[in-house]
Amino acid sequence: MRHDYKLSYLANGGARFSGKPDEIAKFVVKNQLLRTDDWKQFVRAFLNNMDTEDEGWRGEYWGKMMRGACLTYMYTKDEELYKVLTDAVIDLLHIQDYHGRISTYLPDHEFFGWDIWSRKYVLTGMQHYYDICRDEELKETIVKALSAHLDYMCEKLGDGEGQKRITLASNHWLGVNSCSVLEPVLRMYDMTKKQKYLDFADYIISTGGIEHELDLVQLALENKIKPYEYPENKAYETMSFFEGILMYYELFGKEDYLTAVTNFVEAVAETDITIIGCAGCTHELFDNSAVVQTEPHNNVMQETCVTVTWMRLLARLYRLTGDVKYAERLEKSAVNSLYGSINTHMLPQYWQWKIGGDKIGPFVFDSYAPLYNGRRGVGVGGSRFYPDGKFVYGCCACIGSAGSAIYPLTAVMTSEDGIIISSLWAGEIKAETPAGNKAVIEITDGFPVGGEIKVRLGLEKSEKFEIKLRVPENCKKFEVTFKGKKYCARGGYVKVCETFCDGDEINVLLENALTEVVLNGRTAFTYGILTLARDCEKEGKPSDLTETIELARKCKKPIYNLCTPEGEEMIRLEVNLKDGTKLLLTDYASCGKKWDKEDNCNITVWMNIK
């Protein structure tokens, strides 16, 4: 792989936060990733070729969860988790057949439905475990197994005699789901340097990513139509395909491919990313969500799979370019859409999902995110029962941990010039300076709501290098001082480049304010990076969230006061209304968690405001 990344993750779990990102990562480990019975059920789907009969996607669960679990391990360094993942990898390796196949489809039904999609997740799950594996013999076994797994696909798929065209190897979404295997195929080339894997990647790209006369890469390069106008508009799979195109650029520096990806990302950001940082108000489809997000929907919208895949693509671009806009968008998605999807109330009475008359759950990650007078817990995205009816899982439940890990992993990174802090969560950072000296950085509380934040440096040697602090999106003030000197923001960062000594301290003053966002005649509120919402349960009574309310104002601005947050809230505030009552707003991520009552659990971001 080309080694010209601008930013790098900290080694050995170098950032340990004490606030929300850390709480959530630990919650996910405890309540999901350590569940050994679930891992065994995921493997059972391969052992019994369970997807053959209903053309299902149970084969994605193992690899999707393994990817997120390995990224989570990179942050937590939890040894119990490492052991669980190692056992899960060994279990899956044991079921590989003599052809090299690791598939949930029988051979006479293969390369149809979601077969390649699931084989993709075998590749990416194993590859992510390879990144954390400390056993060299096991790593060799993994490469051998994945090579056999991919060799079989290379043999059977293509435009040659007796081969099946990859875009026809699925009867869904013009085959883009199958073509999204591109990224792990390129990763296999990078791991083995086998030319046939690069040839296979070139073949996938040559198809245009879909079974259509139009080509996804060319559409992005031309940039004349928006992603919701593409021949297929499946958000998650399309973004995953473009992640493969981006990896091709990383390997070989083909500039057109970087241009195609950045054009695509900008188009998605413009037309489809909502105020909480997700896309798809019609199920999980690109649908011009940036505009239609204010309207009533059936609540099956803003899928967690879309949120996390968007975050993955942004994280990759941020590491590659250092452009602050990618970090801003990633953070918006994390603290609003993703954190809102996490079901922190794991009490049984809150689990009312029904499939086939059976209650199911609990899952750590909810599937859908309401925006206008809707509720959480309306269903399990990508759900599939196992044949005995005693186990069920879903796509969003599996993918979430990748997002909850990516955010803290990208919060602090390093470059050739120093240390980049893109999110000032309280915690301790262990890093190396450009000269290779050890640094321990402590950050005090204050983010994301605001206040005085101190960045204290512990250095084994004095050294001149830079510390870049990202200016949080939509903040009212971000003032940085070091030894009495003020520093200005440029390009979305404040750069402090000095000779630092042990015990030095950078002082940050972060101030936010309530901001009104008006769209299509409706109003939403943000406070810095946080999107706010009304919550019927928090209001303590059934409420009409569609009612028109009139704010009390001073100099045309809402009058409000900050209150002490309760429970898991990051922010709580009250806005004065014209009739003398108060409007309670809290961070979207904390809203709608208790959805046990049909008439008292709706939430809304968009409101009818005078």
Query: What fraction of the residues are assigned to beta strands by DSSP?
Result: 15-25%
Measured between the Cα atoms of the first and last residue, the distance is: 55 Å
Low-confidence stretches: 1-5
The secondary structure category is: alpha+beta
Assign an overall shape: globular
Biggest beta sheet attributes:
7 strands, antiparallel
What name is given to the CATH topology of the domain at 415-511? Answer: Immunoglobulin-like
Q: At the first level of CATH, what is the class of the domain at 415-511?
A: Mainly Beta
> How many individual helices?
17
Q: Could you give the count of β-strands?
A: 28
Helix content: 25-40%
Radius of gyration, in Å, reads: 24 Å
- Average of the residue pLDDT scores: 94
The second-level CATH architecture of the domain at 415-511 is Sandwich
**Spatial strand sequence of the major β-sheet:** 2-9-10-11-17-13-14
Task: Describe the 3D structure.
With 610 residues, this protein is an alpha+beta fold. The protein has 17 helices and 28 strands. Helix 1 (20-33) packs across helix 3. The chain is globular and about 75 Å long.
